[in-house]
Amino acid sequence: MDALRVCRWVSGTWRPRFGAGLRRRNAGFGTEARRRPQPQASSKRKDPVEDQPFPGLLRTENLGVEELVNVLRAAVVDQKGPLVTLNKPQGLPVTGRPGELTLLSVLPQLSQALGLGHRELQVVRAPGKEASGLVLLSSCPETASRLQRFFAQSRRSQRPTATYCAITDGIPEPSEGTVSVALKLDRMDGIDLAVPVTSPSRKDILEGVKRTLSHFHVMATGCGCALVQLQPLTVFPSQLQVHMALQLCPVLGDHTYAARVGTVLGQRFLWPATTTKPQRQGPTWWQ
Q1: pTM for the structure as a whole
Q2: Cα separation of 49 and 57, whole Å?
Q3: 212 within 8 A of 180, measured Cβ to Cβ
Q4: Where are the alpha helices (DSSP H) in 114-233?
Q5: Max Cα separation, the chain?
Q6: DSSP H stretches of helix in the chain
Q7: 206 in helix, strand or coil?
Q8: Which of 12, 17, 164, 254 pairs with 85 at a CA distance of 20 to 30 A?
Q9: What are the Cα distances from residue 227, in Å, to 29, 221, 235, 284?
Q10: 84-130: per-residue pLDDT in tens?
């Protein structure tokens, strides 16, 4: 499963969970830990999140509206005034086509389940489908609007509003820095993939190319892996996954963009993004 996770909001509401000044340490990603025997399967019925091919990966096609509402209700980590915070499982899209089961589609039922009555929740901030992490909801339109303006102003002033953590296949060098690259969405085999653009022109910008920027900081390392703190300063689909691939350290479990990183005689290099199709991530040592 994709090892990208939202850890905190950087604002007056959420306190930092990880500090940028933390020293790097060995994370203990050792062989013994990976080969540790797994607990025997229980005969008890599993919940909808656990009963998946990958722990924590939610498959909405296996759920009904009531089951998804129960999952989200159990995922609430804080409810204060009009604000509700829940830990969205990986695999749950925020929006989708009419008739699809998404976070947005069950907000009326979730509002009722949380005792909000006629005050329907709306999404203020949420990670994408491929990431798990904190979702901020509000039952007050004025509060939601003020928070959304805050996030928009923070993006314009390039102040981080969210911090993510990812385990990477490889250790970024240097251990701290920024990734700045222009990206565009390119349709390949029916999938929209983020592709870097070198020296974009004004015409490129008008046609959908966007300059993206992220901070990264290595927090811990072990056995060729790193625990990396990521702070996006722009918003673009799959931005963090692409940025880490450009550092030759793809996110562990990223089966879409990791294939762009190749290895010859122990040296990593980038394959051309426009000719590299998504494939199951290798090597197999972490499976």
Answers
A1: 0.66
A2: 6
A3: yes
A4: 141-156, 202-206
A5: 63
A6: 31-34, 65-74, 107-113, 141-156, 202-206, 239-246
A7: helix
A8: 254
A9: 10, 6, 22, 19
A10: 999 998 889 999 888 889 999 999 999 999 999 889 999 999 988 87
